[in-house]
Amino acid sequence: MFRGNHPTRVDEKGRLKLPAAYKHRVDEVYRSNEFYITSKDGKRAEIYPLQEWEKIEAKIAAIPSMNPLRKRFLELTSYWGQSAEMDGQGRLVIHPLLRESAKVAGEVVVFGMQTYLEVANHEGFKAELAPMSEAEQMALSEFGL
After folding, report:
1. pLDDT tens-digit profile of 98-133?
2. Cβ-based neighbours of 59, under 8 Å, separated by 6 or more
3. Count of domains in the chain?
4. pLDDT value of position 24
5. Where would I find the SpoVT-AbrB domain in this sequence (predicted)?
6. How confident is the model at residue 45, as a pLDDT?
7. Contact 30/100 with Cβ under 8 angstroms?
8. Strand (E) or helix (H) holding 97
9. Between helices 50-61 and 68-80, what is the axis angle to 10°?
10. Given 2, 13, 35, 108, which is the most exposed site by the fewest CB atoms within 10 A?
11. 65-77: average pLDDT
12. What is the DSSP secondary-structure string of 23-45?
């Protein structure tokens, strides 16, 4: 499981060096250097080990092809998405279209989101950071959180 926040950088060539804690997890659990990098909104990059992305694809395939939400999900994740292979130094290239849209260059934060990683512009994320509302906390309490 990916958890926590690890600030890092995306270099001028669009390469994100996977933080050591996450790379160790990838090596231990997934034993693969294949990933799918995408977004649902163009504001943050989502990095999935390919095995996790394939689980999502299987769920999407079970939705009727005429379902408009299925089509919308596929349009967005395909538009922003691209397969990526981690190099020998533990780096992944975030393709230019998503890198520009999400402003993930220079200082970024990488969040562990259980089965995938999320990459956000550090300053942009801090500017939007707000505490959870009482209503949000109440809603989560229904799940025992």
Report:
1. 999 999 999 999 999 999 999 999 999 999 999 999
2. none
3. 1
4. 95
5. 5-52
6. 98
7. no
8. helix 96-102
9. 150
10. 13
11. 97
12. HHHIIIII---EEEEE-SSSSSE
List the structure tokens of 107: 């200082």
Q: Spell out the residues 6+ positions from residue 14 whose beta carbon is closer than 8 angstroms to its own.
A: 93, 94, 95, 96, 99, 105
- At residue 70, the pLDDT reads 97
Per DSSP, the residues of 98-142 read HHHHHT-SEEEEEEE-BSSEEEEEHHHHHHH--PPPHHHHHHHHT
Q: Which helix (H) or strand (E) holds 85?
A: strand 82-85
Domain of residue 33, residue span:
5-141
Q: How far apart are CA 66 and CA 24, in angstroms?
A: 40
CATH number of the domain residue 18 falls in = 3.40.1550.20
Phi-psi region of 114 (alpha: psi -120 to 50; beta: other; left: phi over 0): left
Which pLDDT band, with edges at 50, 70 and 90, does 63 fall under?
Answer: very high
pTM of the model: 0.94
Q: How many angstroms separate the CA atoms of 44 and 42, rounded? A: 6
